[in-house]
Design goal:
- The chain has 343 residues and is an alpha+beta fold.
- The protein is built from eleven helices and seven strands.
- It has a five-stranded mixed beta barrel with strand order 1-2-3-5-4.
- Helix 5 runs antiparallel to helix 6 and helix 10 runs parallel beside helix 11.
């Protein structure tokens, strides 16, 4: 779960309220608030007037924003990954907060602490990294242990795992999120392998660690969360397969059939082609791992939704007689339903 800023909803003398994006409500005003530009697009209305569409963020969340009556010069001040100082008012569009920008200017990078603008895992990366290496050291399979040791000893992978999110928005979308997702899957793999004797525990643990390893190259995560060129063109499954294959073939006598099985689990872990899988899961471990990965992602999403509901960050859309105590979320497209929390 991500760390959250305190609400702080007291207005200043100009009527502006200084609080994080996930607490913004229709009617709020912000004054001289520094935000990170996630995306920025220069557009034109039918009558020829220019405007800028943006997505701005702080540590807690992103918000869509618009600046009317814009110019090319102003657009140059709002490039992706720039920091900007913003004043404006919060309106509502399609039942979501929408920031109408009155004033905006670029802020120099040396005036900003980048870490303050990205959500971060509650767990220290060093602690998670140590736990991961302990899991690897405890594996029975010498071949898989050697492969994982080689992968995890790469400076690129070490640096990436300390910072990389597991997703851009849907689940574990924060610094250290990928490592947190991996450790959760390792623990789940050990539990399920103890219940089903036909499953190879070491293979499931290896899949947990390697299935999303390509995301350290798919994502850019120094300021905001975005896709790299190779992430857009190849994707994390392809990038992960390349990395794992290169590492395995450099090891002496790594079993080809073991590599193929591991490649299959990674290729199929999204379940179906419509969700990005290259193949359907076709081994017991591949089938089990697909469901584990899907479950962990869904549970992380639900945990974030419940936290938002408790803190009032995502009030229900519409009014229903059964919407008591803020227990219902609004409709969640990623889950194709609303969610009810019993506590």
């Amino acid at each position: 779960m991500t760390k959250r800023a305190s609400p702080g909803r007291r207005p200043d003398r100009n009527g502006a309220v200084d609080h994080p994006i996930d607490r913004l409500r229709k009617g709020d005003r912000i004054q001289d608030k520094i935000l990170l530009v996630e995306t920025s697009n220069f557009k034109q209305t039918r009558d020829g007037k220019f405007f800028i569409q943006m997505v701005l963020r702080d540590r807690t969340q992103s918000i869509r924003a618009i600046r009317w009556e814009a110019s090319h010069e102003l657009y140059a001040e709002c490039s992706t990954s720039d920091f900007v100082q913003v004043s404006g008012r919060v309106e509502e569009f399609q039942q979501n907060p929408h920031l109408v920008v009155d004033e905006i200017r670029r802020v120099a990078n040396d005036e900003v602490n980048f870490e303050e603008f990205l959500p971060t895992s509650d767990r220290p990366p060093e602690e998670m990294e140590k736990e991961l290496l302990e899991h690897v050291a405890a594996m029975s399979s010498l071949n898989l242990r050697d492969l994982l040791t080689a992968v995890l000893s790469s400076p690129e992978i070490q640096r990436g795992l300390r910072r990389c999110p597991a997703g851009k928005k849907l689940h574990h979308a924060y610094i250290g999120g990928l490592l947190e997702h991996i450790l959760s899957l390792v623990n789940a793999s050990k539990l399920i392998a103890s219940n089903y004797e036909q499953l190879d525990e070491d293979l499931l643990v290896a899949a947990s660690i390697l299935h999303d390893i390509g995301k350290v190259r798919e994502f850019a995560y120094e300021r905001g969360f975005s896709y790299t060129d190779e992430g857009q063109l190849v994707g994390h499954i392809g990038l992960g397969l390349i990395l794992i294959t290169e590492t395995a073939t450099a090891l002496p006598s790594f079993p080809p059939e073991l590599l193929v099985h591991l490649q299959h689990i990674i290729s199929s872990h999204h379940g179906i082609p419509e969700h990005g899988a290259l193949k359907l899961p076709m081994t017991p471990e591949a089938i089990a791992f697909h469901f584990l990965d899907n479950l962990d992602a869904k549970m992380a999403m639900l945990s974030e939704m419940e936290s938002d509901a408790v803190h009032g960050a995502t009030p229900p859309s519409g009014s229903h007689s059964s919407d008591t105590g803020g227990r219902w979320t609004e409709y969640k497209p990623a889950l194709n339903r609303r969610i009810y929390f019993t506590h």
